[in-house]
Design brief:
With 262 residues, the chain is α+β, with helices and mostly antiparallel strands. The chain contains 6 helices and 13 strands.
């Protein structure tokens, strides 16, 4: 086993132990350089394979770090991606046990699914729009296995792009008339506005973010499949989850999605 492979294995073990023991761990950048995205994705892939082997069901992908505000919060400068699982997908209006997570934060996003596979070497926003089956307002529960959210780019990539869970709102079909960059978002906590943003805050448009993901995954030989959920990235700053607390995201033109934490 090479030193790099051994270091990736140690990083994966550290993150898996943090999840299993419900105790955040130190950053993994003592094992993988903070900007070594290739090794970080190798850790992520190892943990994903272990999750699937344990019976978890992959349902889609998430794009992280699409908002400049979120990048500034975390001190990184590029997007990343991770995996979604069925057992951490919640229905609109769900009452969620905060104890399922370690250090949860929440952000509002546009979710979508495609009607066909996207495996082209390069995809555009127009390609994504032509393939959209549905879009929906969504909440992503962002979480970190790394103590105090002390993360670099490699830390968050290895940690499945800091994914915790997601809530999908009502699905909208027939999306050709939606102005994705102009979508306005407002996220409230117990009725108080805690985050605002727009489609432009997500790499210029959620469709541009989805095209980045499709191109990136096609290059890795892991194309987006029809029916998979894509969380396209935050439309505004994420906020720490407070429990008990109710969160409602309204995305103008798409609708609203809500959940409550206990």
């Amino acid at each position: 086993m090479s030193d790099t492979t051994e270091m990736a294995a140690q990083a994966a073990d550290r993150l898996a132990r943090a999840e299993r023991d419900r105790a955040p761990c130190p950053p993994i950048r003592d094992l993988i350089d903070r900007n070594d995205t290739a090794s970080a994705y190798a850790v992520q892939s190892r943990l994903e394979a272990d999750a699937i082997a344990a019976g978890r069901v992959l349902t889609g992908r998430k794009i992280g770090l699409t908002s400049l505000a979120v990048q500034a919060q975390l001190g990184v400068d590029q997007p990343d991606f991770g995996s979604l699982f069925a057992d951490t997908g919640f229905e609109d209006g769900s009452d969620i046990d905060t104890g399922r997570f370690l250090q949860p934060r929440i952000e509002a996003e546009v979710a979508l699914a495609l009607s066909r596979d996207i495996d082209a070497a390069s995809s555009s926003a127009e390609d994504i729009l032509a393939a959209v089956d549905w879009v929906a307002p969504a909440l992503e529960i962002v979480d970190s296995r790394i103590a105090n959210w002390d993360i670099s780019l490699a830390d968050t990539i290895a940690d499945n792009a800091s994914y915790g869970g997601h809530v999908i709102g009502p699905k909208v079909h027939g999306v050709s008339g939606i102005d994705f960059p102009a979508l306005k978002m407002e996220l409230t906590q117990d009725g108080d506005v805690v985050s605002t943003g727009s489609g432009r805050d997500c790499m210029g448009s959620p469709l541009i973010a989805a095209a980045w993901l499709a191109t990136t995954l096609a290059g890795l030989g892991q194309p987006i499949r029809a029916g998979q959920i894509i969380l396209t990235g935050a439309l505004g700053p994420m906020v720490a989850v407070k429990a008990p607390g109710s969160y409602v995201a309204t995305i103008e033109g798409l609708g609203r999605v809500a959940c409550r934490f206990r």
